[in-house]
Design brief:
About 10% of the residues have low confidence. Helix content is about 50%, strand content about 25%. It has a three-stranded antiparallel sheet. It has about 100 residues and is of the alpha+beta class.
Length: about 100
């Protein structure tokens, strides 16, 4: 026997659809230590990303948990920002005389 939907069922579905739209999947772009702050500010402004602190395990000499800066946004925006960041960092490093 098939289930008959009521007006309340439809109303609840609309509420669930609204919640799903609000709960976009967010991604973090971890900023490498030493990244110029001007570049970070530009990325926040250009891509409308939210700066956050993240704790990640860093395994240099011995494994330790460190707090690093990350920029949070939707997947497409974070990918664009990542591409921009690496292009700018490459340009910045290439322009330095060592």
């Amino acid at each position: 026997m098939s289930k008959k939907f009521t007006f309340d069922d439809l109303e609840n579905k609309e509420i669930m659809d609204e919640k799903h739209e609000e709960e976009k999947e967010l991604y973090d772009l971890i900023i490498p230590p030493g990244t110029p702050s001007s570049l970070i500010y530009d990325m926040v402004e250009m891509f409308d990303l939210e700066p956050i602190n993240r704790k990640v395990n860093v395994n240099i000499v011995n494994e330790a948990e460190r707090e690093v800066l990350a920029l949070r946004g939707d997947l497409e925006t974070v990918q664009e920002a990542e591409k921009f960041m690496y292009e700018e960092l490459d340009s910045w490093v290439s322009s330095k005389d060592y």
